[in-house]
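Box 3.1. Reading complex inputs
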Amino acid sequence: MTDTPTPQGIPAPEGVSDLIDTDYEIGQDNIESKIGMFGFDIHNPVFLVSALSIIAFVFYSLALPEQAGTAFSWLFDTVTKKFDWFFIASGNIFVLFCLMLIVTPLGSVRLGGVDAKPDYSYIGWFAMLFAAGMGIGLMFYGVSEPMSHFSSSMGGVTSEAGARTDWAPLGGAVGNEVEAVRLGMAATIFHWGLHPWAIYAVVALALALFSYNKGLPLTIRSAFYPILGERIWGWPGHFIDILAVFATLFGLATSLGFGATQANAGLNELFGIPVSSTTEVVLITGITAIALISVLRGLDGGVKLLSEINMGLAALLLIFVLLVGPTVLILTGFVDSLGAYLQYLPQLANPVGREDVNFSQGWTSFYWAWWISWSPFVGMFIARVSRGRTVREFLVCVLLIPSLVCVLWMSVFGGTAIHQVVVDGYTGAQNADLELQLFKMLDQLPLASITSFIGIVLVIVFFVTSSDSGSLVIDTITAGGKVDAPVPQRVFWCIFEGAVAIVLLLSVGGLQSLQSMVISTGLPFTIVLLLMCWAIFKGLLAERRA
Amino acid sequence: MFQRIMVPVDLAHEKRLEKSLGLAADLARQYGATVIYVAISAATPGSVAHTPGEFADKLSRFATDQGKAHNIATESHAVTSHDPSIDLDPALLKAVNEIKADLVVMASHVPNITDYLWPSNGGTVASHAPVSVMVVR
């Protein structure tokens, strides 16, 4: 900067707030130059180290597939089985922490300073945080997860040498259909309700607070300022950011790879398009190409627009199933499921002395690690669009409303599918592969070809929004928190992510082993999140005193 | 001939603006016009400022300094955008109307092949603005 010398770090915020006084100037570590005709503005060393280590990991899993597979699945097993208590206990802390902020005066702090105005309307904001948070998961698990818990609960408890071998939640409900439905829905809501959204909310709130109110760059490291101080500008900070880029890119690439396999299965079921790696590569290329257009249209013309379209389509599908399905049963089921959730919550959330090890480790602990490994990406995106909201408003909209929408979604889709089993004796959805269960359920309702087509469009557009918002987030982190870096950088990350997905898809077991590794990053990030809670608390207290 | 001259500025790259700033000042003296410096930032902290408020202050100080240096009347107009890398052109076009400019003087690079993919900001503004645009290369 060459304008009149001004004391850095003593700025004029919007109304009263409490900026952190640091000598660090955003972008001071960046390299700004041109390669050929493309300008770039990247953080040194976060950009290079992230990109190179991602390439190194891809090569490792391609060159030594068996060794990589064994190593990563050992890591994954250790993380989800040995640390199940840690994940479950931390999840509870996040929920309680968020609820505490809603009811205490700390909730009145406004992100962006007291006079800040919200950047987005409720509809646009909600559509974006929902699409980023779990849109795609709801498409795949809306039918299959309630169904799966229902079936295992009906099967009851089996054990071998004193250890449970069944996958039923808690004690199951052998032969008791009504109770099995309640337990199945309660377990599903537990995995998709308050806990995952509390995980996202903690990360998003930490980033939004330290960026909008404290004036630090919008990157993961900023949330550590109260703990690490000026050291976040050095290697501890680089490491945190690189880990976040790593988890985000591999998380997106592996789910893009799996998503293509699943979309292919759906297309095969509907239109008889062959299941082959060629089709999948075409799908990934297509999704990446649409994502590129969306990237070039920016936040408002791309992600926001697509998220709103998708929310509209998803709402249509939901209302359709609700109306043509067993409407009264679904609605009473919704209330009943909420009741069952509250009833079983203390047992489901209990971190120690669990007997249902397959369920608590294979489902709950797996999910918690998964949500947490996604949290840098989703949290950062939510933070980007949440300026101008109060902490209370933010938490109600990020925690309570999405949880309720998930309960409704699961009640409608899962409830209808279970109803088909219990009342109609139709087991098509129950026995189908996971990716086909939604389509098999829709098959039993009128206008199946139209609704299934909407289903596939939803899956694809949710992937486009993930790919687009992911590129945006990775670009911001690797540009040292600058959101106005040259556009070709976003294009690079978007293409890079598609390319990694294709390479892994074509290798043997590459997707599986790298996904295991990504989920394993949930463990270090859990510690990161716990520290963030403390940082948020301190940050908000300082803000209240300002 | 001209009363209000709009000059888009990038406070992070002030050196690249010397030509257009000088030219705008000359025109302002010639016609007795006011120069309005327009700059766009995101709400997130950036290299220039930590908050939109601080950004607006810096821009206003920049305008005052320019006014003193060139002995011309100046104003400033800060715009906050969700996604400045992409929304720059529409935001500038909107600003033309908001500040009622009758001439835009802006710096631009010499066009090259990438302009077919990403047209220069000066090029886009010149194609779409309802007023005269002087692109300085």
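In summary: The beta strands of chain A are 30-35, 38-43, 159-160, 163-164.
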